[in-house]
DNA sequence: TGCCAGGCCCTCTTTAGGGCCTT
C-alpha cells in the first residue's frame, strides 16, 4: 500500500486540485471505516496494513480551508481539431494550443485587475487544465465569490506567473510555438495578460502567440457561407450555433474555456483550418505591448 | 439595462461614426 501511494499520492492529488484531500473508504476489523489522507505521512503512519486488500472506494474532497496555493491542475479529454492528413502521413502537431479565459474586475486593462485564470490545453490528458484565482487583495462585487477569492490560499499575480510559466513549458512540444486562444482576446484577455507579465518584470516568451477566436469566427464563418449574422458572434451565440452542451462548474472562467474549446473544434472543421493555419493567423505579444510602451 | 475601454469591422466612408464583444 505504501509503495503504491509513494508513487502516486501527490500526483493523484495534484491532478484533482492542489488543496484536495483524499478519503479512503475500506474494511478494517469487519467494520467500514474512512481515513482522511492529507499527506503521504498519513498513508505511512495512520493506515492499517490490514486494510490493503479491502479498499472499496476512494473519495476526493476539495478542501476550501487549505492554506496551500489554490492553483489546480486537472485532467481533460483531448479536443480533436481539424487535421488535413493524407494517406501515409504522420500527424505533426505544429504548436501547443491553449484556450484561455480571464476573470477581471472590469474592462479596462490599464486600471482593472485579473481575478481568475483558466487555461486548457486542447491536447488533453493529465494536468491539461490550469486554473487559479489571483490577486486576493481585490474585492469582487459578487459576495459569495469574494469569500473564496480573498482567502489566504489564493496566490498573488506575481506568485501565479512563475507557476503559469512552468505549466506552459510542461505543455510545450519540443520548443514549438504556443498559441493562446481567447474570445475577443485582441481587445480583452491578451492586453490584460501581457500587461500583468510586464507589471511584474516578466517577458512573454517569443514563441508564445495569440489568436482571437472572435476575429477568427467573423472571418471563417462568414467566408464559409454560414447563416451566422453580423452581431451574433458572442461565445454564447457560437455555442448555440454549434449545438454545444456546456457543463456547469464553480470555476466560472473554466466554463467558458470548455465552451470555447468545443467552438474552436467546430470552427476548424467547418472551415478546414489546420493547426498550422491557426499558427499563421496568430500574433506575437508585441501587438499588445506596443500600445503600452507608446503611452 | 447600461455603463466602463478599445480594437476590429461594416456602412452610409473617404474625413467618420457606431455596433460588436469581453469582465
Automatic annotation (TrEMBL):
For this protein, the record's CDD domains field holds: DEDDh
Q: Which UniProt keywords apply?
A: Exonuclease, Hydrolase, Magnesium, Metal-binding, Nuclease
Names of the cofactor(s): Mg(2+)
Query: What organism is this sequence from?
Result: Rhynchospora pubera
Q: Which GO terms describe its biological process?
A: DNA catabolic process
GO cellular component terms attached to this protein's record: cytoplasm
The Exonuclease domain is annotated at 96-273
Under which name does UniProt file this protein? DNA polymerase III polC-type
SMART domains noted in UniProt: EXOIII (SM00479)
| Molecular functions per Gene Ontology | 3'-5'-DNA exonuclease activity; metal ion binding; nucleic acid binding
Coiled-coil zones: none
**Entry's family note:** Belongs to the exonuclease superfamily. TREX family.
Q: Which InterPro entries match?
A: Ribonucl_H, RNaseH-like_sf, RNaseH_sf, TREX1/2, YprB_RNase_H-like_dom
Q: Does the keyword Magnesium apply?
A: yes
